[in-house]
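Reopening: structure tokens for the protoporphyrin IX containing FE complex, inputs below.
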Amino acid sequence: MKGIVFTEFLEMVEDVFSPDVADAIIEHANLPSGGVYTAVGTYDHSEMVRLVTALSRETGTEVDDLLEVFGKYLFGRFRALYPDFFTGVDSAFGFLEHVEDYIHVEVRKLYPDAELPTFDTRRLDSERLVMEYSSARPFAHLANGLIHGCLESFGETAEVDFEDLSHGEDTHTRFTLRLVDNG
Ligand code: HEM
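Re-run output (same inputs, fresh job):
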């Protein structure tokens, strides 16, 4: 997993919880890297699992909920860090349906060793979008947070249904988004 995900995670912990909590989880997580990350470095994704697990122990909040909080935060950071990816995109569905064939393709150009999931995305109609997440890594709840962050970032509201279809070691999750009419 790229260092940028770790540096953003630790910043979120400092902001949402406190610098002391960030120090404590680094100490308790028993990390091969020692908790020192650079944005362009690459680290085993199990370090993220260890950090989130340590944060869960420290705060009493479930791991899945913490990954969602982080995903939401991370989307806001991506929007600030990579404004070019948002040029000409005017809706959350318009953004989400191009994560696989555009966003993560560009991410791979920037970081050739990035470990990215696969999304199979289809629009059922103007209100409903299905995104199927597949990965060898257990970050479906991070994806859920990113999806919610994306909706928020475009000022939209949707119900997001989460179906775990995993079998074996891989993670496979179907997200069904249905826009909620605010008018
Ligand atoms: C501007 C938008 C985005 C950028 C710049 C971006 C970039 C990245 C980067 C740098 C990684 C780390 C790769 C690695 O650790 O080696 C990543 C992983 C990931 N991305 Fe994106 N991403 C974006 C949008 C999204 C969205 C909207 C979703 C969800 C719908 C998503 C889902 C994920 C997930 C779940 C991972 C973790 C790896 C895995 O699950 O296998 N990303 N992305």
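The first strand starts at residue 118 and ends at 125. The chain has two domains: 3-61, 68-179. Marking as resolved unless the reporter disagrees.
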